[in-house]
Amino acid sequence: MKTLRAKGKILYCPRPFIFYCYRDLMGNVCDKELFEKNKDIINSVKKFQLQMDIKLIETPERDQYLYFKKVVKNRERENIRVLKGFPAEEIIGNYGLIILDYLVSALLPVSIVLDCPTIIYLKDTSYLKEETKPDLEERFYLVNNKSDLEKHISLYASGKLKSKFSSDMVDKYAFPINAGDPGIRISDYMRKKTSEYVLKKR
Asked: What is the pLDDT along the chain (202 residues), one digit of tens a residue?
């Protein structure tokens, strides 16, 4: 496992608003909890004077964009940008730390193959399956409270937060290692996802 110093920005990919996730019954949370997580992450990054980009998912991004722009402006967070209009897969490999706040995300398998630390901030972990939770903890930093979140971001700020990249996890959940060079397979996957997005926009 390698240590990445906090010279790279943080990428935060928040879950969409609850009214866009009516089918995600297992992972649904109340609005209050969702907004608290947003605030905890933004305030923790500001506390350690780090730079962060907030990348919204493409479909319901309009309402979220207005919301996050207002949150950032009201808290005078000049070190934080809100991004929209393109897939997160295009930029996710350019960051030193990734933060997700829900599991039902297409970025979860993508982050498995990236050799950088990834925090998953879940206030409620009771719905996680016992058979898969150890794998999640082996590959990601599972955090369920603000104090723990700040501790991990502090470690990143001081260059002490290690990547939990694992070839075994890539082989198990993303790309079979024995089927060839995973780097080539991953880049092919990224190109396919971004080209699909471009075609959709035409």
From this structure: 443 444 589 999 998 876 555 555 555 567 788 889 999 999 999 999 999 999 998 766 778 888 898 888 876 667 899 999 888 988 999 999 999 998 877 888 889 989 999 999 998 888 788 888 999 999 999 999 999 999 999 999 999 999 999 888 888 877 676 655 555 666 666 666 666 655 555 5
In a domain, 41, yes or no: yes
Which CATH number is 123's domain given?
3.40.50.2000
In a domain? residue 171: no
Q: How many domains does the chain have?
A: 1
**Phi, psi values for residue 81, rounded to 5°:** -115, 150
Residue 26: which domain range?
A: 10-166
In a domain, residue 62? The reply is yes
